[in-house]
Specification:
- InterPro entries: FAR1_DNA_bnd_dom.
- This is FAR1 domain-containing protein.
- It comes from Acacia crassicarpa (northern wattle).
- The structure is a single chain.
- By secondary structure, the protein is α+β, with helices and mostly antiparallel strands.
- The protein folds into two domains: 124 residues, no CATH class; 72 residues.
- The chain contains three helices and seven strands.
- It has a five-stranded antiparallel β-sheet. Strands 1-2 form a two-stranded antiparallel ribbon.
- Strand 1 and strand 2 form a beta hairpin.
Amino acid sequence: MEDKGNDGEQGSAEVSTSMLNGVEFQEPYVGMEFNSEEDARKYYVEYARRVGFVVRIMQRRRSGIDGRTLARRLGCNKQGFSPNNKGTIGSEKKPRPSAREGCKATILVKLEKSGKWVVTRFVKDHNHPLIVTANGFITPGDKDKKIEELTKELERQDQLCAAYREKLISFMNNVEEQTQELSEKTQIIVENLRKVESEVQKNPLNRKSWGLT
């Protein structure tokens, strides 16, 4: 199925649904809310499956304070252009067909203060045919399937790294607090020793009792 929508970028006032195999499914729109980043990703992947394209997980913006994800961009896997799609001059090798065609279809979701993930940009139109089988599943090549699997694994590893980073920061803060506490205790001991030494030096009787004469 080829998407022939006239308005590529949808606004919050434009909410449309599609009938795919007798099932009504609402396409994403600006202002649409999700409870989590994962919910937004799953929704767009399901939308892509019904419409007929493969999702590529793209850019992410993180917080510089705690490393949390603040925004995430997803798009069609044919977005952009392959860097090696130009053949070599004077070579018998033919250029490999590019899996990317400069498609602009994309969605951007951001984490709001309310804790909700909100769609802030949605580009609907694709510049290539969209393929849906009779059961509603797309039929990408093995390469596209592998890319999707690896992308999911990278996403999982990214989440693990964020969790480890948070634990490391907590550990370092704890070490810093303990170091500061130890330094303060050491300073108190040194000051007490200096006071005792000063008292001994001032009073000869104390010097005798301490065996210093």
